[in-house]
């Protein structure tokens, strides 16, 4: 019995298959990628690359900026190869190499974006905890000279630690970055296996199942991160906002907008991950994976918006806001993992 399954997939009736050595018998995307979407992505990510490079020159937050710059560079490379999969004469939608390379870079890019989000959260934990503690000490010493009152304030140092579940910041970063790396390796392996299977006219079911497992684990781990982010925001609301006094200082004015950008970027990344999971769960020939509109709205748009939000509301803009310092490299600030 032959191990080859009947050809089952999308073939564009308007575009004949060149049948080169690197061509698959079908278009693995499930549709013919449009030139317009890839060109738009390249233009926007090119602008975001310049924006984050500009922010780096202003704020010198090396770790955060490198993560976001790497995100944009990976997206540019990914969409460059996706552009090569657009209709002739620009590209060849049947080319397996273009599919695998664009998938690798477009899937891996959000890993760096997520790491930037994790880094920002841990930096905010450090800065807000430090400022909250210092504020409480100053207030206590100003209002009273009573030794017992000062001792009570000093003994409440742990209450000023805004880390969710009192987790060490290093653990938060290492845990979620490791989860992202492992799940992404599984996804890329699954996608590569799909490409090889389609090229050899074999069933891609095994590769799709591997891809599904990687996405499911990523959805779960990022959900845990969102829970920690929510706990942090609640602790901040309860212990920090009131201590800054009715929003009179720079920190109180800027923090809600910056926090909204951080939360928005996190939710956009999660939306993108859920879409990938749902798309893969439907299978290679599912409705979501056979319509580029879903890719544009739920893969391209969320990531480019998240990168844009963190470019405009860059953590470096919190330097010196009413004493709320996201310090430069070497000062325990953004990018720091103490």
Detailed description of the structure:
This protein is 66% helix and 0% strand. The N and C termini lie far apart (60 Å). The chain has 8 helices and no strands. The protein is mainly alpha-helical and 338 residues long. The protein is elongated. The protein has helices at 35-59, 62-83, 96-143, 147-155, 169-199, 205-239, 250-282, 292-312.
Topology:
Layout lengths: L34 H25 L2 H22 L12 H48 L3 H9 L13 H31 L5 H35 L10 H33 L9 H21 L26
Count of DSSP-assigned helices = 8
Mean pLDDT across the residues is 82
**What global shape is seen?**
elongated
- Oligomerization status of the protein chains: single chain
The largest sheet is:
none
Unreliable runs, pLDDT <50, ≥5 residues?
149-160, 244-248, 329-338
| Proportion of residues in extended strands | under 5%
What is the number of strand segments?
A: 0
Could you tell me the radius of gyration in angstroms? 24 Å
Percentage of residues assigned to helices: 55-70%
First-residue to last-residue Cα separation: 60 Å
Order of helices and strands: HHHHHHHH
Derived from helix and strand composition plus strand pairing, the structural class reads mainly alpha
């Amino acid at each position: 019995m032959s191990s080859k399954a009947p050809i089952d997939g999308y073939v564009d009736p308007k575009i004949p298959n060149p049948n080169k050595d690197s061509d698959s018998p079908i278009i693995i995307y499930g549709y013919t990628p449009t030139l317009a979407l890839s060109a738009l992505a390249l233009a926007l990510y090119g602008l975001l690359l310049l924006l984050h490079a500009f922010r780096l020159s202003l704020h010198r937050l090396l770790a955060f900026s490198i993560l976001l710059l790497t995100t944009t560079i990976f997206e540019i490379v990914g969409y460059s190869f996706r552009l090569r999969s657009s209709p002739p004469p620009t590209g060849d939608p049947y080319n397996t190499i273009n599919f695998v390379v664009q998938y690798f870079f477009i899937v891996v890019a959000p890993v760096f974006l997520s790491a930037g989000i994790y880094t920002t959260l841990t930096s905010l934990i450090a800065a807000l905890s430090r400022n909250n503690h210092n504020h409480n000490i100053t207030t206590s010493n100003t209002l009273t000279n009573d030794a017992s009152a000062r001792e009570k304030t000093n003994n409440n140092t742990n209450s000023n630690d805004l880390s969710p579940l009192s987790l060490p910041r290093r653990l938060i970063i290492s845990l979620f970055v490791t989860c992202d790396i492992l799940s992404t390796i599984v996804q890329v392996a699954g996608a590569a296996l799909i490409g090889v299977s389609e090229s050899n006219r074999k069933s891609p079911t095994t590769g799709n199942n591997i891809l599904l497992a990687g996405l499911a684990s990523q959805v779960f781990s990022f959900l845990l991160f969102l829970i920690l982010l929510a706990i942090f925001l609640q602790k901040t609301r309860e212990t920090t906002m009131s201590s800054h006094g009715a929003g009179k200082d720079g920190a109180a004015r800027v923090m809600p907008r910056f926090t909204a950008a951080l939360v928005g970027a996190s939710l956009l990344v999660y939306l993108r991950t859920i879409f990938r999971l749902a798309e893969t769960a439907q299978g290679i020939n599912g409705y979501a994976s056979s319509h580029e509109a879903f890719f544009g709205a739920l893969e391209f748009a969320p990531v480019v918006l998240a990168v844009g939000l963190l470019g405009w509301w860059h953590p470096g803009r919190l330097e010196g806001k009413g004493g709320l310092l996201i310090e430069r490299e070497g000062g325990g600030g953004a990018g720091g993992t103490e």
